[in-house]
Every structure is written in C-alpha cells, then in structure tokens.
Amino acid sequence: MTTADGRATDVPADGPRGSAAPASPVNRDDLGDRVLTLPNVLSVVRLLGVPLFLWLLLGPHADGWAIVVLALSGVTDWADGKLARALGQSSRLGALLDPAADRLYIVATLVAFVIRDVIPVWVVAVLLGRELVLGVTLLVLRRAGWPPLQVHYLGKAATFLLLYAFPLLLLADGGGTAAAVAAPIAYALTVWGAALYVLAGAFYVVQAARLLSGADQAGAGR
Fold first, then answer.
1. H helices within the chain, ranges in order?
2. 146 in Cβ contact with 211 (< 8 Å)
3. What SS3 class is residue 207?
C-alpha cells in the first residue's frame, strides 16, 4: 500500500492561507489539478465498493464475496499510487480520495463487524475515537486557515495492516481449518494495526499542535 498517489507525506506546504512564509517543503499543494486520471478512477471504484461491501456483509451475509471486495480494495489502493507515479498522474484530488477511501472502508468495516459480533466493541471504540479526535483536529486547523495534514507513512502502514486484518477476521469468524489458521494472523494484524493507527493519530495531533503554535507565535511577533 502506498501513500496517497505516492505524494509527499509531511505537513502542508504553505502556512495558513493568506500567510506569507512557507512552513515546510513543497508537497501536495504542488500537485496538478487533473481529475480524470486512471489513479483517480481506481480511487472512485474503491469508494463505490464501500456500500457493496456493507450490503454483502449485512444483507445476504455473503462473507466470501465481502472478503473479495476488501481484497480488491487493498489491491487498488496499492495500484493507484504506483500508477500515479509511473504515469505522472498525481493530483490533488487523488491525494484526497485515497485516504478518504481508506477511512470509509475502516469505519464501514468496524460498524459491520460490531453488528455481526466479529470484533469486540472496545476495539471499535478505540479506532472510531481516533477518527473523532482527528476530525476535531482538522476542524481546528481549518478555522486557523491550514489545509488538511498530509498522509503520514505510519498512518498508511496502520491502514495496510487493518485492511488486511479485516478479511482474515471474517475468515476466522467461520469454522474449520481455514478459520483456525486465519485466527492468530488476523488477531495479530488487528492488534498491530490498531496500535499503529492510534499512534499515527497521536502524531497528527502533535503535528497540528505544532502548526497552530507556530502560527500563534508568528502572529504575536507581527
């Protein structure tokens, strides 16, 4: 799995909108404005797979097909970054679509798994709590004039682990030899993925606090 279209993954390239001095190296803000690209099409296909996945899991309980959808989402997540770099089709839209699709799959899967009693509620509470904290952080940044934070490699690694843990958790929820083999791998990936996911969230919050603190200090010095 790659970062969003393989883009740089640090803080926003510019300071608060309207400020004069840049705060970090150029990154996402220097990407093109192209919309109709192959990587973007793959990201949209991934987004369209979210309701299909939920229906398969909660409607007919077609776990096998749900696992296929999850697996394909992981493949397309890897492919869109590779193609963006290979074809020179990185774009601002792609940099937003890629992490959005990741988060939607994670949230949708967590909700469905709780309804199906596949994972404990406390795991969902921790991961969704992380999303809530980040949502508030992004709102605070936006009010201060900052664009969204860049996708971090640690966050992508956590997403990678979780998106590959989910199909195995579904498999482990069944019976037979396959479930027995999948269970320890699924639980290990879930624990590591959840830990990294929360740690990445903490890094985002610290990064946002530094940006806001720097902006406050710059404002006080003028």
1. 38-58, 63-87, 92-115, 121-143, 153-172, 177-221
2. yes
3. helix
Report the pLDDT value the prediction gives residue 32, as an integer from 0 to 100: 58
Torsional sign, CA 50, 95, 196, 167: positive
Q: What is the pLDDT of residue 17?
A: 46
Distance, in Å, from the CA atom of 94 to the CA atom of 7, rounded to the nearest integer, reads 10
Cα(147)–Cα(170) distance, rounded to whole angstroms? 37
Rounded Cα gap, residues 155 and 103, in angstroms: 11
**SS3 labels along 113-146:** HHHCCCCCHHHHHHHHHHHHHHHHHHHHHHHCCC
Q: Give the SS3 label for residue 9.
A: coil
User: Of 1, 11, 6, which is closest to residue 207 (Cα–Cα)?
Assistant: 11
Neighbours of 184 (CB within 10 A): 11
* CA of residue 141 relative to chain centroid, distance: 19
Please give the average per-residue pLDDT across 69-91, as a whole number.
79
pTM higher than 0.85: no
CA dihedral sign of residues 169, 172, 174, 178: positive
